[in-house]
Amino acid sequence: MSKYPIQQLLRPPVEMPCAIGYGCAAVLVGLSPSISMGALSTPSLTYGVVAGLLVRGGVRLYDACRLLKYQYELHVLPEYRISSHDIPVSKTDLFLGRGFEWRVRHTQRRADIDRQEFDYHKDRPRQLGYRLARQTEVLMTKAGLHWMTRVTGQKAWWNPVAPIPYTEGVAAIHAVGLWEGESNTTIKQAERVAHTFVVGTTRVGKTRLAEVAITQDIHNGDIVITFDPKGDADLLKRMYVEAKKAGRLHQFYCFHLGYPAVSARYNPVGSFGRITEPASRVASQLPGEGSSAAFREFTWRYVNVMSKALMSIGKTITYENLLRYGGDIDPLLSEYLAFILDQPASEKPLVMAGIHNWRQTADQLREIIKPDKTQASRDKYALALVQIYKQVNLTDPTAGALIKTFEYEKSFYDKLVASLFPLLEKLTSGPAGELLSPDYFDLTDKRPIFDWDTVIRTGGIVYVGLDALSDAEVSQAVGASMFSDLTSRAGEIYKHGVNSGLPDELAALATKRKICVHADEFNELVGKEFVPMANKAGGAGFQLTVYTQTLSDIEARFGSAAKAGQVIGNLGNLIMLRVKEKKTAELLTDLLPDVEINHLMSRSSAQDDVNPDTSTDFTSGTQQQITTQRVPMISAGDLTRLPKGQAFGYLGGKLFKIRMPLFSNESELPANLDFLYTDMKKRYSTASTNENWFRIPDVQLKVTL
Predict the structure, then answer these.
(1) Which of 34-38, 289-293, 520-524 comes out lowest in average pLDDT?
(2) Which helix (H) or strand (E) holds 618?
(3) Helices (DSSP H) in 189-232: which residue ranges?
(4) How many CB atoms lie within 10 A of CB 101?
(5) Which of 297, 298, 304, 306 shows the shortest CA–CA distance to 327?
(6) Separation of alpha carbons 551 and 582, rounded Å
(7) Is 353 part of a structural domain of the chain?
(8) Which helix (H) or strand (E) holds 142?
(9) Does residue 399 fall inside a structural domain?
(10) Euclidean distance between CA atoms 658 and 197, whole angstroms
(11) Residue 633 contacts by C-beta under 8 Å, 6 or more apart in sequence?
(12) CA–CA distance from 450 to each of 251, 453, 456 (Å)?
């Protein structure tokens, strides 16, 4: 049928009567060869004729069954379940599901289904036989004859009254490719460095697609970093189970804001390549539109000065330290000036100024100093150190910036940085504050502290649960800071390599791995730093897969359609599940060409003969004409009606229709997160120091999702 301009796959199965006729003829010839063939009948000829009739009937029967099966699957797709053990793992290809490459013939079939004359295929539940079968099943169930309903209730293509299960979307969009059959749909691993954009509305399968990809990345030995703002329990469990199967449980880190008792710890501002980065990560969380821009820049400078001072005096830059010294800069100024005055370079200027013991001089000045009105609330010891610093004529940029800040009236300065403190309060309050401002010297806290350098160099697997449903603002701030930190690491790796700073003997042992970043709810994480990351991170071994609901989410994040377009333009591969926004659907449809399809047009005519002298009363005629028309390869309407777990993929410049698998062995996943206590405690209570990544305190924990 594929050689004809229009395949007519929606017609009745006319091959079935032919198959029955061939079968009856074979029976007749076999039972009465003399009647069928007369004197020509011989045993060998009879057997040959019977065999020929059966073969020909079998071919027609196969064609009829294939057509019936195709028409049935327009309503009900076969279920696609696999075990996680059966996911093909390859270094060259990433498996996405089952599907086919969408071509012009599929657009043709899709258009044929929507034609008015084939509308009966959509109205099957209204057919008399279908309604009678359902009513009979109800009566048989009431009578207790459940076994009788198994025949009419059998969900199979050969059952003409098979029940049609409820499905969201239109199954026929995928079924048009089942005539030739499905195959594994993959994307080349080498193509993933162009990054992948997965878009689809809520609850249509984005996270399940992430599970399929993450499972393969873990078993391939790659570095896997997953950002999950909403905190999907199944995704966490899947990563844990697959890490265990792959023998990489010692590399697995779980950071979860919702469950700090069983979470690893992470300092979003403690690791950086340049000292300006902590200030940028903090200031990027503040409003910067209109008049707020000036206040954000002032806050950036304030945090940057504190960061430089903290690093100089050997204190860790954490949210907690920034909040403590940001609210009262006097202790930080005192500690930093003491650090400066203790330097060997300060000894000679102090002696020349007649100061042989600056600490004794500072104590004396503290007793006699009389601050003016603007300095009345300031610490007198800090005032004394400032006076000594100025008297000695030392020049230090950080000290100068701290002193200038110190000399402002405190209430006035607090107004300039007022937007900073609410943010830091949110990030340091409650148990989550211990995760984001870890105490590196508290040996009683066995929860590990990780950073991206450690994760990348040791081949880590990291799950980041941000618990956005509980506190969206904290979730967004932490996620953006972590993503910004990761962007900074990508830049360092791009410039200096993954082993920069390591001794030669350790650098030689390190293995270069791909870094697979999966970012769910991408719009809550993306910031202005993403564009350089997407541009440059491929050279550093990063391959990003980002997930979101609509294009408008990204536009709202940036406040600009142009910036959102810049972000999308850096994502080379596109996988689109069901969407509800036409503008989002057009991200894919605008990439595809218009194609030419055939249209069968029927025309009937009749004309009366007005001449009474002829024997002809009227003339009539019927003709069919095939015309062509150009239509989009797929329409935006198709993308709004996709069933759950289905997607179109624009991969490597080709369009694929994909059906993602469901996992059939969900029982292998723990029912709750209690395993994070029971299994880890059992596994690592006697583990070596190198494997002790997730030691749990000796308390009873039961966390259930």
Answers:
(1) 34-38
(2) strand 618-632
(3) 206-219
(4) 14
(5) 306
(6) 10
(7) yes
(8) helix 128-142
(9) yes
(10) 15
(11) 102, 104, 107, 589, 592, 593, 594, 595, 655
(12) 11, 8, 11
Q: What is the pLDDT of residues 350-389, one digit of tens each?
A: 888 888 899 999 999 888 888 777 777 788 899 999 999 9
> Does residue 547 sit within a domain?
no
Q: Which of 94-98, 453-457, 584-588 has the lowest mean pLDDT?
A: 453-457
Any idea what the Cα angle at residue 335 is, between residues 329 and 337, rounded to 5°?
Answer: 95
Instruction: Measure the CA angle with vertex 192, ends 189 and 194; round to 5°.
Output: 145
More confident residue, 122 or 700: 122
How deeply is 174 buried, as exposed, middle or buried, from its count of CB atoms within 10 A (0-12, 13-18, 19+)? buried
User: Is the predicted pLDDT of residue 557 greater than 60, yes or no?
Assistant: yes
SS (H, E, C) 510-529: CCCCCEEEEECCHHHCCCCC
Query: Are 544 and 226 in contact, with CB atoms under 8 Å apart?
Result: no
Question: Taking the model in full, what pTM does it have?
Answer: 0.83
Tell me if 186 sits within 8 A of 196, measured CB to CB: no
Q: Model confidence over 216-272: pLDDT tens digits?
A: 999 999 999 999 988 778 888 889 889 989 999 899 999 988 888 888 999 989 888
Backbone angles phi, psi at 512, to 5 degrees: -75, 130
140 three-state secondary structure: helix
Q: Could you read off the pLDDT of 564-578 as tens digits, one per residue?
A: 888 888 899 999 999
Is the pLDDT at 691 greater than 70, yes or no?
no
User: What letter represents residue 144's amino acid?
Assistant: G
Work out the pLDDT band at 665, boundaries 50, 70, 90. Answer: low
Over range 682-699, report the average pLDDT.
40
Q: Residue 195: which pLDDT band, with cuts at 50, 70 and 90?
A: very high
Q: Which residue has the tokens 């930190």?
A: 485
278 Cβ partners below 8 Å, 6+ apart? 269, 270, 272, 303, 304, 307, 317, 322
Write down which residue in 394, 409, 427 finishes a domain: 427
Instruction: Find out whether 226 and 206 touch, Cβ atoms under 8 Å.
Output: no
Q: In what helix (H) or strand (E) does residue 631 lie, and over which residues does it extend?
A: strand 618-632
- Please state the three-class secondary structure of 382-397 as a single string: HHHHHHHHHHHCCCCH
The two structure tokens encoding residue 32 = 């009465």
Q: Which two tokens stand for residue 496?
A: 């200096």
Cα separation of 109 and 74, whole Å?
A: 11
Domain contains 466? no
Q: Are 218 and 224 in contact (CB under 8 A)?
A: yes
Q: How many Cβ atoms sit within 10 Å of the Cβ of residue 623?
A: 9
For residue 378, the enclosing domain spans 277-427
Query: CA–CA separation, 334 vs 380, rounded Å?
Result: 10
| DSSP structure string for 233-273 | HHHHHHHHHHHHHTT-GGGEEEEETT-GGG--EE-TTS--S
Q: How far apart are CA 588 and CA 329, in angstroms?
A: 53
**Residue 101, H or E segment:** strand 93-101
Q: Residue for token digits 């350089």?
A: 532
Alpha helices in 524-560 (DSSP H): 530-536, 551-558
For the chain, the average pLDDT equals 83
State the virtual CA torsion across 474, 479, 482, 485 in degrees, nearest 10. Answer: -100
Number of domains the chain contains: 2
Q: Which tokens is 395 given?
A: 């020049």
Mean pLDDT confidence for 658-675: 68
Query: Among residues 198, 211, 220, 239, which one has the least CA distance to residue 92?
Result: 220
DSSP-assigned beta bridge partners for residue 184: 98
Residue 457's SS3 state is helix
Looking at 73, 94, 111, the residue that finishes a domain is 73
Q: Residues near 31 by Cβ (< 8 Å), separated by ≥ 6?
A: none
